[in-house]
Amino acid sequence: MQAYQDGLRALQERKFERARTLFQKVVSSGFREMADRAKVHLNACSQHLEQVLTNFRTPEEHYDYAVSLINVGDFVAAREHLEKILKQAAKADYAWYGMAVLDCLTGHVNDALRELGEAIRLNPANRYQARNDSDFNNLADDPRFTELLYPESDVLSPAPPEARR
Questions:
Q1: Are 135 and 101 in contact (CB under 8 A)?
Q2: Chain centroid to CA 106: how far?
């Protein structure tokens, strides 16, 4: 009962994150009547928070939010946000990079390679970032990934001994 009342107070004060936490506690308490009421308020909190979180000032700010969704494992929402960024700013190399990370983490290797290629085309510095990014560990043994990250390896490789004579 106390968590419910505190949740209502937080909701009235527009402290939606705190209210949501309190209402979640009520929902999980097992008191059916209180839980049903708390769910209604919980939905209101979630709607307010979603509205606040989706009013981004810049595509970069929006990207940071999408990355935070990837970090907590909400891949579906992260994909939606990255796709929105790319619709607004198709040349945003960081958004292509984010999509490549997301697709790598979710096992979509071909898409990840294509998107990483686009990120590198738009900003060659992404090549060096990807070399040290553990999110691409799933691709480490893929020769296409190696070619994408180390295109100069053909130029830098020493010639075989018979070619040097």
A1: yes
A2: 11
Q: What is the pLDDT of residue 11?
A: 80
Q: What is the pLDDT of residue 131?
A: 95
List per-block mean pLDDT (blocks of 10 residues) for the chain, which spans 165 residues: 86 80 84 82 76 73 88 85 92 97 96 97 96 94 95 55 45
Q: Are 146 and 117 in contact (CB under 8 A)?
A: no
* Number of neighbouring beta carbons within 10 Å of residue 160: 7
Indicate the pTM of the whole model.
0.64
Residue range of the domain that includes 130: 59-150
Total domain count, the chain:
2
- Residues sharing a CB contact under 8 Å with residue 126, sequence separation 6 or more, in sequence order: 93, 97, 116, 119, 120
Please provide the DSSP assignment of 33-85 as one string.
HHHHHHHHHHHHHHHHHHHHHT--SSHHHHHHHHHHHHHTT-HHHHHHHHHHH
Two tokens, residue 18: 């705190």
**Are 99 and 32 members of one domain?**
no
